Amino acid sequence: MKKIGLIFDSSYKTGGGHFWRCFNLAKILKKRGRSFFFISNKLKKNFINILNKEGFNYIKLKSLKKNSNIKSLIKTKQLDTFISDYYDLDEKNKKEINKIVNCFIVIDDHLNKKHFCDVYINNNFMTDVSKNRIKKLNPNSTLLLGIKYFIHTYKFSTLKKKEKNKNEIKKVFAFFGSSDPSNETFKFIKSVQDFKNIKFKILIGKLNKNYQKIKNYCKDKKNIRLFYNLTNYKTLKLMQNNDLSFGSGGINLTERLFLGLPSVVLCTAENQKNALIALKNKKIIHFLGDSKNVSVLLIKNCLQNFIKNKKLLHPLLKKIHQYYIKKNNYLSLQKRLNFIMKKIYK
Known about the structure:
Elements: E1 2-8, H1 17-29, E2 34-40, H2 45-54, E3 57-60, H3 67-77, E4 81-85, H4 91-100, E5 103-107, E6 119-122, H5 128-137, E7 142-145, E8 171-175, H6 184-192, E9 199-204, H7 211-217, E10 224-228, H8 232-239, E11 244-248, H9 251-258, E12 263-267, H10 273-281, E13 286-290, H11 296-308, H12 313-325, H13 332-344
Parallel strand pairs: 1-2, 1-4, 2-3, 4-5, 5-6, 6-7, 8-9, 8-11, 9-10, 11-12, 12-13
């Protein structure tokens, strides 16, 4: 039995995106003769239930920062492949882990790191300059860079993509991450509550500590419908058939773009910024800037501009179809990883 470990941070600040990315990756790699061990610190019970239902194992580590605990776990469970979606694993620790496993895979959004791994995955949108920087820092790793290596649910390719020519805004989707520690969701609701002719679908994650406050505030808002703690696939279904979206960067933004959904984006984490600037420069997204500088009035005016000027949507849709949909890039990761795994387990 081949044993594969996946480590990720699931704390409040980090949110649930890393869980879903690891879960979807395990689904891609799942075959007879492979068992999976998910390793994290503060995983919620509903996530653990999802793992149990799939037949995946869960191991709780109180602290992910002690590399001795990680190495001991790898040896005890006899993990031969180790996948890290944990950004705080430093160079020294990665070197040590690489020595004791057959294959070491790292998923990371940052551009200025040495990873000392067999396979490095960064499925953000990036420029050639960024790719070359990564190549210089990681010359001995197999590099899977760019959106064609997007880690997605296995059902993703069956979902209907948005049509290119629709410019009218009647339905708007919004999601600011599983935890949304800066409460961008509430800011957004206050911005759009007076747009009575638009239906807003707002997703709130399990880790969002402001959920009850938001729920109470929206009781009399007939144009706003809240959705709470959805699975990754149900989230994708919810995003379909909307005309515009608002949200943060990261994994969900990539999903929105692959569904052909025009996106207004706020930067809520430093590691998102390079990708968001690249997307802005290519005119694929409408970028409002760092969330701390985005006011209620700015969001309100932005939506008003999109409603008044129907031509604003068209160039976004055109670019999204050009870069994300036309090439069907999201099929490449599964083929590439299956090829790598065949080489490892031959």
